[in-house]
C-alpha cells in the first residue's frame, strides 16, 4: 500500500487508538466508541477509512454483530536523515523467502521456527515436525490433518505429550522477538553509517557541490542508472549531471555500462 | 522522540514534502513556499512544528539568509498485524555499537566501511586508514588533520592517488544500501513468522481464548515480567492472568522466576 496514504491514516490519534484496540481483539462499533470516548459516528468514519485502505476488515458473527479486526500484516519504515526522507511500506515477506541467499545479512534462527513455518504453509508437502508425521502416518498427510493434530494438543488434553508443541512455539516466539529487536538495531546502525559515508563523500569536494556528488553516488549505489533518471533523482539539470559523471569517471569512481552509469566498485 | 508526535507530524502531506525537499538541500522559506505552492506563512508554521520536534534546524548564512535543514537521523517503524499495532522510533545507533555480539543476526560488511566509521569518529585514536596515517605522520594526528587530508583529495586534485578514498566510500555506500534492503526484507520476513507463530499458538486452544494465550506468551517473549504488568499488557483482569499462567506452568510452558513469570524455553 501507498506510504503517503498510510501516513495520512496513521497521523490521527483516534485511528491509532482503534488499531491498538483491534490488535488486542476484534471489536464492534459500540465497544470502540465506549473505549475511545468518541461518538459512534466518528468511529464508523475512522473504520471506513481504515477498511478502504485494507488495514481493517469486518465480519458478522452468529449474533449478527459486526466485528472489526486488523486485516493483514503491514510494515512501514520512515527514514529521516540530512540526506534522506524516505518512506517504505510493504506486506509481510513470504515464509518461503530464501533467507539464506542474502549477501550482507545472516539470520540465525533455530529449527523449531522453520518447522512451524513449514507446518503452517499449505504448499509444503515435506514435514520435519515429528508429532505431525506420527499423526499423518498414511501417505501425503494434508495440511489440515496436521492442524487437527495440534488442535488436540491443547493444555487440557492429558494423553498428549506435555505441550512439546506449545513450548516449541513459545521458544519460536522468543527467538523471533529477539531477532526483530536485533534487526531494528541493525537498521539504526546502518542509518548512521550511511549518513557518515555521505558526509565523508561531501567533505571530499570543496564548497557546496559535495552534497550533490554524494547524492549522485548514492543514486548509483542500488544499481546502474540511465543519466536522465539519475538527473531526476538528484533534481539537477541533465547536463550538470552528465558533466559530474564524466568527472567522476575520469577518476575511476564511476563507469559507463551501455546507456547506463554505474559505480566502479 | 515520541512515535505518536512523529506520526502526527508526518501525517501532513506538505510537511512530508518539506522534509523531502530539505533532504535534498538546505532551503530558505521563500524557496520552500515557491516549490510547494503554499503561502510562506503556512511554510513557517510547518517549519516551526518540525523544528520544535527536533527534526529540522536552521542556520543563518553570510548573506543573513536563514536556511533550514534536517537536524539529525531518525527512524520510525510501524508494525501492523492482527496481533500488534506497534510503533517504534529511534535515533541512529552509535558507530561503536558492537554489531558482532548479536545472537540472531550477523551483518557482513567489509573493512572499508569500518575504516570510514573509525575515521569519522572523533573519539577514535587508532586509525586503520593508510592515507590518514601518512598525512599525520607526527604523533597523535587529530581528527581534523585527517579531514584536511581528505579535502585535498577532490577529483580536481591531480597529485593525489586516483580517488582511492572516494572509490572506497562509493563501495561502502553500495554495501550499506544493499544491507539496508536486506534488513528491511528480513524484518518483513520476521513479521510474517511472528504472526504465523501467534496464529498457531491461538489454534492450540479451543474457542475464543487462544488469542489471549498467544498475547500472554508474547508478553513474556521479551523477558520475565511481573504478573500485574503482564495483566496490564494483555488488558485482562489480574486473576484471569494468574489462572492462565498457573495452567501454562502446569504444562511446563512458563515458570515462576521469583516475583516474575518467564517462558520455560
TrEMBL record, chains A, B:
Pfam families: HTH_5 (PF01022), HTH_Cmi2_C (PF24270)
Transcription found in the keyword field: yes
Keywords: DNA-binding, Transcription, Transcription regulation
All residue ranges annotated as the HTH arsR-type domain in the record: 1-90
GO molecular function: DNA binding; DNA-binding transcription factor activity
Cited SUPFAM superfamilies: Winged helix' DNA-binding domain
Low complexity bias locations: 133-159
InterPro entries reported for this sequence: ArsR-like_HTH, HTH_ArsR_DNA-bd_dom, HTH_Cmi2_C, HTH_MetalResp_TranReg, WH-like_DNA-bd_sf, WH_DNA-bd_sf
Location of region: Disordered: 115-165
CDD domains in UniProt: HTH_ARSR (cd00090)
Descriptive protein name: ArsR family transcription regulator
Amino acid at each position: 500500500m501507498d506510504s503517503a496514504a498510510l501516513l495520512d491514516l496513521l497521523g490521527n490519534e483516534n485511528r491509532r487508538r482503534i488499531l491498538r484496540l483491534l490488535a488486542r481483539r476484534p471489536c464492534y462499533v459500540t465497544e470502540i466508541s465506549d473505549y475511545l470516548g468518541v461518538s459512534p459516528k466518528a468511529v464508523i468514519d475512522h473504520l471506513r477509512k481504515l477498511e478502504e485502505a485494507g488495514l481493517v476488515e469486518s465480519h458478522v458473527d452468529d449474533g449478527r454483530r459486526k466485528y472489526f479486526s486488523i486485516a493483514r500484516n503491514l510494515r512501514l519504515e520512515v527514514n529521516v536523515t540530512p540526506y534522506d526522507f524516505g518512506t517504505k511500506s510493504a506486506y509481510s515477506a513470504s515464509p518461503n523467502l530464501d533467507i539464506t541467499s542474502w549477501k550482507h545479512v545472516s539470520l540465525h534462527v533455530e529449527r523449531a521456527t522453520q518447522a512451524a513455518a513449514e507446518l503452517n504453509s499449505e504448499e509444503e508437502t515435506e514435514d520435519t515436525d515429528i508429532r505431525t508425521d506420527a499423526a499423518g502416518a498414511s501417505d501425503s498427510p494434508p495440511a489440515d490433518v496436521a492442524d487437527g493434530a495440534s488442535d488436540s494438543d491443547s493444555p487440557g488434553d492429558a494423553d498428549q505429550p506435555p505441550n512439546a508443541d506449545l513450548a516449541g512455539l513459545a521458544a519460536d516466539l522468543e527467538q523471533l522477538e529477539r531477532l526483530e529487536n536485533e534487526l531494528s538495531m541493525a537498521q539504526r546502525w546502518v542509518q548512521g553509517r550511511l549518513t557518515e559515508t555521505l558526509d565523508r563523500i561531501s567533505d571530499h569536494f570543496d564548497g557546496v557541490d559535495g552534497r550533490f556528488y554524494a547524492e549522485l553516488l548514492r543514486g548509483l549505489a542500488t544499481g546502474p542508472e540511465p543519466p536522465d533518471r539519475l538527473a531526476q533523482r538528484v533534481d539537477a539539470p541533465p547536463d550538470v549531471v552528465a558533466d559530474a559523471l564524466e568527472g567522476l569517471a575520469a577518476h575511476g569512481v564511476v563507469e559507463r555500462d551501455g546507456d547506463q552509469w554505474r559505480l566502479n566498485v
